[in-house]
Amino acid sequence: MTYIHSTIAKLMLSSPAQAEFYQAVEEVLESLTMVLEQDDKYRRHAIIERMIEPERQIMFRVPWADDNGVIHVNKGYRIEFNSALGPFKGGLRFHPSVNASIIKFLGFEQVFKNALTGLPIGGAKGGANFDPKGRSDAEIMRFCQSFMNELYRHIGPNTDVPAGDIGVGAREIGYMFGQYKRLANSFDGVFTGKSLLWGGSLVRKEATGYGCVYFAKYMLQDRQQTLQDKQCLVSGSGNVAIYTIEKLQQLGAIAVSCSDSAGTIYHKSGIVLATLKQLKEVQHARLSEYISHHPDAEYTPVADYPDDGHAVWRYPADLAFPCATQNELTAADATVLVQNGCIAVSEGANMPSTQAAVEVFLEAKIAYGPGKAANAGGVATSQLEMAQNASMRSWSFAEVDEQLKIIMRNIYSSARDTASEFGAEGNLVLGANIAGFRRVADAMIEQGLV
Ligand SMILES: NC(=O)C1=CN([C@@H]2O[C@H](COP(=O)(O)OP(=O)(O)OC[C@H]3O[C@@H](n4cnc5c(N)ncnc54)[C@H](O)[C@@H]3O)[C@@H](O)[C@H]2O)C=CC1
Ligand SMILES: O=C(O)CCC(=O)C(=O)O
């Protein structure tokens, strides 16, 4: 049995039924074979064994009452994965699919992603299996307050700094911060993604989507291509998708699609961002309503999707930006994308492509930016928010955006150069995993057996 297989087999025994977590670990371990063989210090210090076991896992009950007085109980999580490089950092997800496997895969990815930014942040993730869909504002507030009644004791500006993710945006951060402040009796930078009125950073809202497009731009530059006039498929219609579309439009590309969990919109002449923002950011409406504003667009409900994939990836395009959720792009989707002439994929979401889909991209040698590199602009800008909070200063939009561009360029160069160093030219999966790993692993060795 190979080292990877025996590690995964042990993980399955110690942490049963965590398919997404195994998937994330396996992908990383496959990239690390050469680096582990090159220097046996990582094996001697049991770095892999320590890295795949979170430093701390917090699971808790979240009881709350709906507007009719009916009591509900959800499960809350904060998985503090690794603090070798800095305070635990990573988002909170509120979605009915949340379980220990999802939060652990996200936390594990976050460790490598945060290391790639070059900034002093460790990795964590949290959330709850709460479904915000259809809930009133008062219900959301009560849920957030109950969630924070437990979480507040585990977080702090120098220990663990949560942010948003699926289902957690500015509104939820506001309610959680308010309850934290009340319980901790302290106004500090314990969250990022805060409102600009009370300590947020300009560009944080846009950062993940913008960063994902900057990453694509740098991948294309190395292939003597630009974004100008490129047809782009985008999935999702939340924070990351919206600001991916916005930056694509600003850089001369045409974003022709978006999706939500009920269906996909394809608008050949280009998604009208004002409509999308109104529907999703203001009205919290279903995407299907887009059609009533733009009858020339097409809507495909989920029921009509192909059995082996997602409707959004079946349209012809030059570039693809998966910005919805994990495993939303299958090997069959990847094959169609490549056959249709797609030259680059930049992942705004976390682990949106299945392992088999990633293999299709690598085999076809198209430019493929894995999520932990391509979507790191969000957490990087969160760290810039922490830096502004700590120094009690605020930087201009242009200053933060400039730093974001530099960070994304550095992440791209570091993944590209590390891939070349290991003889895997163009394989940004391998490059990103090794570059992130070395930074965390070397810090862990220096900090002793903890
Ligand atoms: N918000 C951030 O700063 C960051 C987010 N991410 C990742 O980006 C992805 C999207 O997150 P956000 O935009 O923040 O969340 P969001 O809650 O703002 O939006 C999520 C969107 O995905 C859609 N969606 C969910 N499941 C879907 C499915 N099965 N098919 C199609 N659409 C589906 C939802 O309808 C929604 O429009 C997630 O994977 C998240 O982990 C990654 C880095 C940072
Ligand atoms: O901004 C952050 O702290 C975390 C963003 C996030 O959840 C992610 O990168 O997946």
Question: What tags apply to this protein structure?
Answer:
five-stranded parallel sheet, 17 helices, binds 2-oxoglutaric acid, Rossmann fold, 450 residues, five-stranded mixed sheet, 2 domains, Glu/Leu/Phe/Val/Trp_DH_dimer, single chain, globular, binds 1,4-dihydronicotinamide adenine dinucleotide, alpha/beta
Biggest sheet record: 5 strands, mixed
Domain count, please report it: 2
Radius of gyration from the alpha-carbon trace, in angstroms:
21 Å
What class, by secondary structure content? alpha/beta
Number of strands: 13
Low-confidence stretches: none
Query: In the CATH hierarchy, what is the class of the largest domain?
Result: Alpha Beta
Name the hetero compounds present. Answer: 1,4-dihydronicotinamide adenine dinucleotide, 2-oxoglutaric acid
Fraction of helical residues? 40-55%
Strand content: 5-15%
Please count the helical segments: 17
Q: First CA to last CA: what distance?
A: 29 Å
- Mean pLDDT metric: 97
Could you give the order of strands across the largest sheet? 1-2-4-3-5
CATH architecture of the largest domain: 3-Layer(aba) Sandwich
CATH superfamily of the largest domain: Leucine Dehydrogenase, chain A, domain 1
Please tell me what the overall shape is. globular
